[in-house]
Structure formats: structure tokens, C-alpha cells
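Annotators were shown the component list below and the corresponding predicted structure, then asked to write short factual statements about the assembly.
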Amino acid sequence: MSVPLLELDGVTRRYGALVALDHVDLKVEAGEVRAVIGPNGAGKTTLFNVITGTVRPTAGAIRFAGQAIGRRPSHEVCRLGISRTFQITALFPEMSARANAQLAAQARHARRWQPFGGNKIFKEARARADAALEQLGLSGIADCPAGLLSHGDQRLLEVAMAMAQQPQMLLLDEPTQGLSVEETAQAVDTLARFLKASRMTVLLVEHDMEVVFRLAHRITVLHRGAVIADGVPDAVKADPRVQEAYLGGFD
Amino acid sequence: MKGVTRLVWIVIAAGLVLAPLGLPPFAMTLLTEAVILGLFAMSLDLMFGYTRLVSFGHAAAYGFGAYASGWLLLHTGMPLLFAVFAAALLTGVLAIGVGWMCTLATGVSFSMLTLALAQLLYAISFKWTSVTGGSDGLAGIPRTIGPFGFAALSSKTGFYYLALACLVGGFLVCLALVRSPFGAVLRGIRENEAKTTALGYNTRLYKIAVVAISYGLGGLAGALYAPFAGFANTELLFWLLSGQVLIMVIVGGSGTLVGPVLGAAFFMLMEHQLSAWTEAWALYFGLIFIAFVLFAPEGLWGLATRLRRPARPGP
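Structure shown to annotators:
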């Protein structure tokens, strides 16, 4: 096996007496789509926050592409090549879909802060933005204000914004959260097509088991902050501890 | 439509440039003050309109600039032009500290910190009598000509052109700024700061920078006011002025740069007309302000552009 792109080693996060993450070990290989599942309060979102530098781990080490990132602020982690989406849709509602993706792309430019001119910077960012919108099938609504898009398109736009940053790794926090059954089916179709075509490394948190089994290559199960299972979807599905902790009567 | 817009601009520009030929001295005084206040309101628009950083203490920039240029003109013999720009620069540099401190907080707390700092300066202006003249303020501020000429700038008409040049220059700087990549990040902060941070922007640095630029330009307006009026007093640091400049920005149309300049002129005009008619002019202007907030939140400039363009198709 090659060196993993993302590696967590004994990562722990405490909030007072509460242990949100309990010695989590996790390895994600390049090109892999990894899902993290677990009941509410299992520590999935904390895991994302710790990886992206929004929250500092109490103990343990995080390495991304060979660099320690456990103590870095989130904007630096982001610039190293990890882009994320949020569980609750976070967009710039008055800007067009393209302007949203363009601002995301601009963040990767060395002169993103230039206080005058900037036509060249805008042009490069726009090219990346348009490419990312295309990947997620959003070219048709590029000029629409993000706040007016359907909820499904808004979720996909968030993924497009992350892709416009040309990341090495994508963190998706419940990409189908809040979508209706029909919207979810459509969004998952688009995501599946996009993931297959892009070979992007993904860490995915998702509640909807059908979505997980459709998109993920491997699944890690969190329960009360600790990893209780880790493997290919069928193995995880069959694991009795997982069934007891989470899936309930899934089969 | 584009041709009409251009024509309107040419007429306005020509009117401003030729104003001293036609207007009586009294009207020129009002117009000069409107230009200075316009620059002040425009500087606040960078924070309020483009970044949604609500300063309740923008008088700090204006008053500090006024005291600084007044002090330099009174005590150093520095020529007018240098004193004005030195005072503006000093305001901007000190505002880096203001920005650093105020951006420790966000939202209402940010506004309260700007207010607190302005009130601090207000208190200092009363107590530090040896420098500020206490409650009398600085009086008899000269428009020193200096060794390099520029004598024309010290005359009434010349000073008007100086103020106008500062307004136009400030406008061009602000326009370049808001259309640049930097400006795009400011709009991101305005609409969703958490997301802007998540995209990899160090939003706090952008906010500190915009506070420094905004205060610097506000300081430039104040630095012009002191030699214009011949005095600088504590009123220039008072919270009432901070509130008034916010009203100018909102009535004129925030996030447009031009709007706040219009708002400042409108405010002055109303103050002048209404106060000639009633002592309670502020009450009536308050009603006008409420009407704007309720019925025309896009402000005077928004109303003007709505007339100019056909109604936008709905979503």
C-alpha cells in the first residue's frame, strides 16, 4: 500500500468531560472515497472540524500529504489542498453561482488580495470556476444568484466551489442533508458521475445509508467518538457491532 | 441608455468644476462642506456598504484627521497640502490598531468597540488641553501656503478645488479597490464571513486593511475640514456625527460609493433648508430617514438607477 494522503493518529478531542473524538486512527489513500458514518453525536462533524483546523485536537497527530496539520489554522489547511463543504448550506446568496465558484478559485491565487486591477486574476479564477461548474452539471445556472437556486443545486454548488479550488482532497459534510427523496436521488447521480470521472480523494460524512453505499469505497464507523469498524461496505454492513450500534434493523 | 448616463455624468462634472464661476460665496461654502462630508461618507461606505462592518464611531477618523491637520498647521508651519495628507496618513496608520482591536469582535460588538474608541478620543480631546485646546478646540487654523507655492489652494475657490480633487481621487481609489480581487473578498465577507474563511481567506487581515483605508480616507476628510472651517473642536469626535454619517450612507445608498456622496449633500441641504424653517429640523429629517429605510432602502442612488434602468426581470 502506498503512503496515505490523509492520516490521523490517535486523534482525541475533549470538550470538558465530553470526549467527542477518542483516539481516532484513520488512513485515507489517494483516489479513495471514504465515508464516515455513525449515529448523531458520534463525532463526525468534530472529525471534520479537527481535520480542517477549525477545532484543534486535544491530542494526537494529523498528517496530510506528509505534513503535520493538526495545529494549523483553517485557512492554511485549506491552502494545503483540503477543501470542505458544510452540513448547513453556506454560500454567498446574492452572488451568481459562477461568482461563488470564482471567489473560491481566487482563494488559491498567489495574488488573491491584490487591491487594484486584477483582470488576469479574475480570468484565471473564472476559468477554474466554469470548469468546476461543468463537472457538477451546473453550467446552465451559472448566472443565477446562488440564493435562488434549488436546494439540490445549492448543495452541488458547494461541491463545485470546493472543486474550483483544485484541492487534493475533498471533505463533504452530509451533501444530501435537507434534500427531498427526488432531489437526493438526482444529487447522488451527479455526485457519483463526478466522483468516477474526477478520481478525487473524498472523505464523506453522510446519514443516508443508501447514499453511503452508493458512493463510498470504504466505510469507517464512529460510535461515541471512537472507531468501531473500518472496511469495505459489505464487510461493515455485516459487522455485528455496527449493526448493534448504528444500523439497527438495516437489513 | 448608456449615452444618457454618460451625459448626466458630464453635466455633473462640469457643474462641479464650474460652480465657483456661478455660485455666490455663501453657496460655495456649503458646497465645499458637502464635498468634504461626501468624502467622509464615502469612506464609511467601504466598511458599511462593501464589507458590512458597521462603524458607530467613524467620527473618530474625521475628528482625529481634523485635530491632526489643525495641530500641524498651527504648530509646525507645515504647508496646507502636506499637513492635510500627513494627517490622513497618520489616521490611516493608527487605524491599523483600531482595526486590529475592533476585529477581535464581530457584529454588534464590533460596532460597540468602534463607538468606545471614538468616545475615548472624545474624552481625550476634552482633557488633553495643551494639545487639543480642551472644550475650546483649536481655533485660527491657517491655510499655510509654504515654500512651494500652491498659493491658489489657500483661496476660497482654490480650497474648493482641493477638496473636490480629494473627493474624486478618493472615489477612484475606492472604485479600483472594490473592483479588484481584494474587493471581491470584501463582498464575500459581507455575505458570509465564515464561508470566506473556509475558502482559505484570512478574513481578519482583510477587515483590518479595510478599516485602515476607510479611516484614512475619513481622516483625509477631517483633515480638509479643519483648515476649511479654521477650527477643530470636540463636536467633530462626538457620536452624533458618527450617527449622522451612517444616515448619509444609508439615505444616499450604501455599497455604491456615489450614493453616500449624494447622501451627504442631501443631508446638508435638508439641514440647511429645514433649520431655516424650524428648530426641530432633526425631527423632520428623522422622519425622512425612516421613510427611506422603509420605502427606499437602496437610497437616493438606488432610486436614480431604478429610474435610469428598466425594472429588472424577476427571478
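Statements collected:
1. The interface with chain A takes residues 176-177, 179-185, 187-188, 191-192, 194-202, 205-206, 209, 315 of chain B (CB under 8 Å).
2. The radius of gyration of chain B is 19 Å.
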